């Protein structure tokens, strides 16, 4: 079918248009047939059969490689899992042993704690019993010391005998205006002190004799403040030294008396003395005296 050209168009243009139409129709007819070299045609995209055949051959190889990689990865994962499972088994076994050890140690700890508690309870019982025994021994020693006097600062005489010591006691009693017979001195001896020096211990037949002598000494020294009892009064040659007389105390009472005197000076207690082997404190004139039985009594004597 041919269209009529518009008016005014030249015959040459009409002829060119007809030629282009004819060429296009021929090309379409040729493409619909079996063209021998379709891939060499310019401007026409046609898939290559050789390229498709190449892809079809490589696909199985690629899939096989993927399967091999997966198998290798699976094998490595199984090895790691087996190793991890073995490690977990070992850890569980170690934890089981550790748990048993901890349970054993807990049991041992409980046993030791029970033993320690029992030991502590027994120790307290023993300590109480020991304190009771010490108190009994202290009371017995105090009773033995009730009739004894300690005379300090008496120089030791070369070749000194008990008779010399008896004469010292007798001469001291005369200065105090007391008559002491030989039979009234049950025993007399000298003891060495820990820090050096020595004291004379005189044991009388009665406590009243001892108390009378101590009372006379205190009275004598109050009356003779400028010439207190000293070695010159009993005719001892050498340097003049003061003579101190006090009741004989046990070792425990001596320490307690020392601590009590120190406590009195530090806490404004005016009086500190001993009587019948016991230690007393008094803060001032007219105040209540305090019996000191132990070091704890000194602490409780301080008013907050």
UniProtKB/TrEMBL annotation:
Family matches, as Pfam families: Baculo_FP_2nd
UniProt domain FP protein C-terminal: residue ranges: 251-299
Low complexity bias: start-end ranges: 10-25
Keyword vocabulary terms for this entry: Coiled coil
Biased composition (Polar residues): 26-42
InterPro entries: FP_C (IPR057251)
Coiled coil location: 52-122
Region feature Disordered, mapped onto this chain: 1-47
Name of the protein described by the UniProt record: FP protein C-terminal domain-containing protein
Organism whose genome encodes this protein: Mythimna separata (Oriental armyworm)
């Amino acid at each position: 079918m041919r269209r009529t050209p518009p008016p005014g168009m030249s015959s040459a243009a009409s002829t060119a248009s007809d030629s282009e139409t004819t060429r296009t129709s021929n090309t379409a007819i040729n493409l619909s047939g079996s063209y021998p070299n379709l891939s060499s045609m310019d401007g026409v995209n046609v898939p290559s059969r050789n390229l498709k055949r190449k892809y079809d051959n490589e696909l199985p190889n690629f899939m096989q490689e993927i399967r091999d990689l997966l198998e290798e990865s699976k094998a490595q994962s199984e090895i790691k899992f087996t190793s991890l499972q073995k490690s977990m088994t070992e850890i569980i076994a170690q934890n089981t042993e550790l748990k048993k050890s901890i349970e054993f140690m807990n049991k041992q700890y409980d046993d030791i704690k029970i033993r320690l508690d029992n030991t502590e309870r027994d120790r307290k019982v023993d300590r109480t019993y020991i304190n009771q025994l010490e108190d009994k021994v202290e009371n017995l020693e105090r009773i033995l010391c009730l009739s004894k006097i300690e005379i300090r600062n008496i120089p030791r005489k070369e070749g000194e005998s008990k008779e010399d010591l008896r004469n010292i006691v007798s001469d001291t009693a005369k200065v105090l205006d007391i008559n002491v017979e030989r039979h009234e001195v049950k025993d007399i001896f000298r003891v060495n002190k820990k820090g050096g020096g020595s004291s004379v211990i005189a044991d009388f037949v009665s406590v009243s004799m001892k108390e009378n002598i101590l009372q006379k000494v205190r009275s004598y020294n109050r009356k003779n403040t400028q010439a207190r009892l000293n070695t010159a009064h009993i005719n001892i040659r050498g340097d003049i030294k003061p003579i101190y007389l006090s009741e004989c105390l046990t070792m425990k009472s001596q320490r307690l008396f020392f601590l009590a005197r120190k406590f009195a000076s530090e806490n404004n207690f005016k009086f500190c003395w001993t009587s019948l082997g016991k230690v007393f404190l008094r803060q001032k004139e007219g105040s209540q005296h305090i019996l000191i039985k132990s070091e704890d009594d000194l602490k409780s004597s301080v008013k907050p």
